[in-house]
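Tutorial handout. Part one gives the primary structure; part two gives the three-dimensional structure as tokens.
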Amino acid sequence: MAGVLMYGFLHLMINFFRMIGWWRWKIEGRENLPPRQLGGMVVVINHVNWIDIPAVGALLPFAYRLSWLGKAELFDRPIPRWFYRNMQVIPINRGRRDMAALDASVGALRSGAALLIFPEGHRSRTGVLQVGRGGAVRLAMQSGVPIIPMAISGSEHGLKGAWLRKPLTVRIGQPYIIPPTQSGKIPADLMNRCTNDLMQRIAALLPEDRRGPYAQLPVS
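Part two.
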């Protein structure tokens, strides 16, 4: 309950500034969101600034309350640990394959979570798309939920940009499902193809000058 109240307060506060016209944040393609009652989904988006998470969380309908992965160090102290756990953040040890975090993520998705994943692995800061990694693909295949590709532009200005009324846009693409393999394993070539396809879908939602290594590839 505490997490719902905190998330709801932040959702209302950010949208208040939008409603009065001060924060020029907008969302496009909301009609592409699958009905929430259908269950979990992997929300995949490019990463530019820390403000990406509150921006996406506020621009999506409250029913699509997000979970996301956060570095394990955030959970070291009692008060931050309480806050992040109530906000449905899943701790992950970066720099190595954290099976506990992967299992927790799959469990959350199967339980209906909308899990936000940044496939680049770290912020670009410039807004130009970077090479993607396969974690989102793996989670979607193992949990059997759809991937929702999204793209954010304008967040490179951070919170200061919001106060200076810089425009920020989140675009939502068409959801899709990657069928699992018969063996349950994902060969390297299949992982590469699926990851490139995912990143091309994100690139298609970005301005051409922000598509980075995917600028010269055909977009889905």
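Part three, for discussion. The CA atoms of residues 203 and 211 lie 5 Å apart. The first strand starts at residue 25 and ends at 28.
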